[in-house]
Design goal:
mainly beta, about 10% helix, Trp_RNA-bd_attenuator-like_dom, TIGR00266 family protein
Length: about 230
Amino acid sequence: MEYEIEYRPSFALVTVSLEQGESVRSEAGAMVSYSDGIEIETAARGGLFGSLKRSVLGGESFFQNTFTANAPGEVSFAPPLPGDIVAHELDGEVLYVQSGSYLASDVDLELDTSFGGAKTFFGSEGLFLLKLDGVGEAFLSSYGAIHEVELGEGETYTVDTGHIVAFDGSTTFNVERVGGLKSTLFSGEGLVCTFRGPGTVWLQSRSMDAFLSWLIPQLPSTNGTQ
């Protein structure tokens, strides 16, 4: 499966080229276009319980689309927000993905939800993260540009919880406050996630939480008067 990512980092589009018999799976609504000879199948992957768990707990769509090439062709995907796309090839390892950042992947990769522990309850990740494992290519999306950070053994790196895209299963992490209570309340940073290597962490240069915090006060209020 070949691919090309264009228009990075603000309006990224990934085009996946499929040989006859090859398939790629995506989130519902991620498809932009496909060529002649591509067949689409929509299904609740992992059965009713698995799809419901992924949708309710993982924040992803209940249904997923599988595109199969009956003849050589291509399919293009894009995220719903202005942002970037990155490809990451898994070779049997585990990748944890922030809710909303999974775009598409090889059909051989398993996508499930994973309990992140009570520590994630206080971060924007929520209690559950998406878990990808197996062998194949995964495409991750972001709000803003994607920045990749490689961590060595024992090396730590701290990220605002709203800027996390994904991280290797080999890393460990802890959600904590920024400094003391005063810093947490008034610094504008809130909660952060500290990762410890080895492994890779993918960040997004913009935060939806921060954008909404700016946008909502700008919206006109509705008080029921004409």
